[in-house]
Amino acid sequence: MTPEEFRAAAHTLVDWVADHRSRIPSLPVASQVKPGEIRDALPTHAPEQPEPLADVLADLDRIIVPGITQTQHPGFYGWFPSNAGLASLLGDIASGGVAGLGITWQSAPALTEVEQVVTEWLRELCGLAPEWKGAIQDTASTGTLVAMIAGRERASELSEHGAGLQAVAQPLVAYTSPQAHSSVPKAVLLAGFGSENLRFVDVDPVAYAMLPDALAAAMAADVAAGKRPAIVVAALGTTGTTAFDPVAEIVEIASEYGAWVHVDAAMAGSAMLLPECRHLFAGIDGADSIGWNPHKWMGTILDCSLLYVRDVDHLVRCMSTTPSYLRSAVDDDVVQYKDWGIPLGRRFRALKLWFQLRLDGVEAIRARLRRDLANAQWLADAVAAEPDWRVLAPVDLQTVCLRHEPPGLHGEALDRHTLAWADAINAGGKAFVSPSLLDGRWMVRVSIGAEATERADVQALWELLRATAASCR
Ligand code: PLP
User: For position 441, what pLDDT does the model report?
Assistant: First the structure.
């Protein structure tokens, strides 16, 4: 494709995107396709000859769009917000346009230095101390794995440069909450700790936050058994209920053993942009690493996850490789992001943040987050005031965990009722919610924060929840 052919095709595609985004409210929120339906609609073999763009766009409408759950829909309350703001989409297009190869500073100096600047902007906007240094990862899962390896290597005195974990005299132990995201235990396994060396520390039965005394007891028991506490992952804004582990106390306990503290604030990190929410993150500057996702609530299009560390030199010692073909004369003077994480080749993700922050402005982002917090409080109050409905966890952010509990329904019968009305809502196409287990029983998470969701949408949702639950009795 020549640049002139691209110009024509891209204008058509941009029009398609703008039209598509405008009509999202008229689409069903949850994709209604059956497994295999999309695959069956596509040819078995790749085309030998070029096809017209019009045919490809027609298939986008006919085949692809029905196979997308519309996370940009005002009725999307599932999982967590996954906003794909159009200003950041422009940055994504620009990133492809400049085609920067991010393997070293030399391969695209702007790619490295814009990333340094935007991670510093966001550090400041989040009220984090100046010693934090940030890099963009693809996802929080990768950020947690990187932190896990850094924690492992600090506890094992850089064992990877010798015989690795196989020669470590004391088994290393990792700690987290049973409410932590599944990417945390996954990182523990991938970093070679072994599932026997993963402790799920008890949480408070009301707030679902880690109990510091239980952490202290677990660490002391491990030390008595000849093991070494290596890392604690504190969850700030858990996936189930957006609970906040007490990071200040966790840092204090971990420091007795020299254990690394990683903060997983994948969802909640956006709330650090709001000074009135910073109390939820008290003590965070004492941690060793923090991960959070602009690609969730803040609205930077996937993928864009931030990982901040305080001791970058240690991280580089863990992650650095220096093949001769990547050497340059300025290596001592520049940041090499290849040494701050796992991949060599990096996309120019910083442009997504750069475009979003410049074109939207921080004040508008803050206003949207505040709108969502107020909407969640409105819904929580409405649910709490309604007979036979219950709010099941503190609403610290924008997610409300709720259940319809009609008299006489308990145990598995209550579970069947909860799943029936949640599934009916999702099948109806007007809204999408996530049923999830809490204390072994099904409940429904209503996670407010799609960019398009206004108070009237939340009010309509509440009507829909009541009508659907009543009709499922
Ligand atoms: N941590 C928390 C608290 C999450 O809620 C999620 C996803 O929802 C993740 C980590 C994983 O995020 P990612 O998809 O960026 O790996």
Answer: 97
Cα 83–Cα 395–Cα 374 angle in degrees, nearest 5:
60
173 and 299 in a common domain: yes
Residue 264's domain is classified under what CATH number? Answer: 3.40.640.10
Q: What is the DSSP letter of 209?
A: P
Cα 355 to Cα 337: distance, rounded to the nearest angstrom: 21
What is the per-residue burial (b if ≥16 Cβ within 10 Å, else e) of 224-261?
A: eeebbbbbbbbbbbbbbbbbbbbbebbbebbeebebbb
Where are the alpha helices (H) located in 24-135, listed in sequence order?
A: 37-41, 53-59, 86-98, 109-125
Task: Give the structural domain span for 415.
Answer: 362-471
300: left (phi over 0), alpha (psi -120 to 50) or beta: beta
Partners of residue 135 on adjacent β-strands: 307
Q: Are 295 and 88 in contact (CB under 8 A)?
A: no
Residue 425 in any domain: the answer is yes
Q: Is 117 among the domain residues?
A: yes
Per-residue pLDDT tens over the stretch 32-42: 999 999 999 99
- In this predicted structure, the answer to whether residue 342 has a pLDDT above a threshold of 90 is yes
Reported residue count of the chain is 473
Percentage of residues of the chain with pLDDT beyond 70 = 100
Is residue 366 domain-shared with residue 355, that is, in the same domain?
no
Give 198 Cα–ligand 1 centroid separation in angstroms. 19
Whether 81 is in a domain gets the answer: no
Q: Relative to the CA of 143, which ligand 1 atom is closest?
A: 16
DSSP state of 236: B
Q: Is 434 a pocket residue for ligand 1 (Cβ < 6 Å)?
A: no
Indicate if ligand 1 lies below 6 Å from the C-beta of 263: no
Do 158 and 17 lie in a common domain? no
DSSP 64: I
Long-range contacts of 96-102 (CB under 8 A, 24+ apart): 98/348, 98/351, 100/348, 101/345, 102/337, 102/345, 102/346, 102/347, 102/348
CA separation, residue 382 to residues 15, 49, 347, 376, 419 (Å): 41, 59, 44, 10, 21
Give the Cα separation of 148 and 155 in Å (integer): 11
Q: How many whole angstroms from 266 Cα to the centroid of ligand 1? A: 5
**Model confidence, pTM:** 0.96
8 and 117 assigned to the same domain? no
Q: Which residues lie across from 102 on neighbouring strands?
A: 346
Answer yes or no: are the C-beta atoms of 179 and 204 closer than 8 Å.
no
What mean pLDDT comes out for the span 191-204? Answer: 97
- Which region, left, alpha or beta, applies to residue 408 given φ > 0 means left and ψ of -120 to 50 means alpha? left
- Report the nearest atom of ligand 1 relative to the CA of 303: 15
Ligand 1 touching residue 140 (CB < 6 A) = yes
